[in-house]
Design goal:
Layout lengths: L2 H10 L5 H8 L3 H13 L12 H8 L14 H9 L5 H11 L12
Helix pairs in contact: 1-2, 2-3
């Protein structure tokens, strides 16, 4: 059994507290709380269906966040090459980038 299944079993069958579960499994109480919160948010119920494997359970609880950015990321390798040129500064490189992407309003931290 995985730690996730053990946490769920100890909580719902043995009715242990978060601290007792964390002591039994040698994990932090915040981890126990996080697993149980994710379990509730996933809309799952105890007992788990027999056809639900450990991998599917973990997938349901820990959904991978898609890496989607609404901002267009700069071409850092090009910026690095440009900054090496004589007369080119980080601020000038940023201004060129901002001209291409007018929705960007904040200056990045590297300009400080």
């Amino acid at each position: 059994m995985s730690k996730i299944s053990d946490v769920l079993r100890l909580k719902f069958e043995s009715k242990l507290s978060h601290r007792d579960i964390s002591s039994c499994l040698k994990i932090g109480p915040a981890t126990v709380s996080g697993i149980l919160t994710r379990f509730r948010n996933a809309g799952l119920t105890w007992p788990l269906p027999d056809e639900l494997s450990e991998a599917v359970l973990e997938q349901n609880l820990f959904l991978a966040k898609a890496c989607s950015t609404k901002k267009a990321l700069p071409d850092f390798s090009l910026m690095h090459k440009e900054i090496k040129l004589r007369g080119m500064t980080k601020i000038l490189s940023w201004q060129e980038y901002q001209a291409l992407h007018p929705k960007i309003t904040q200056k990045p931290k590297y300009n400080c």
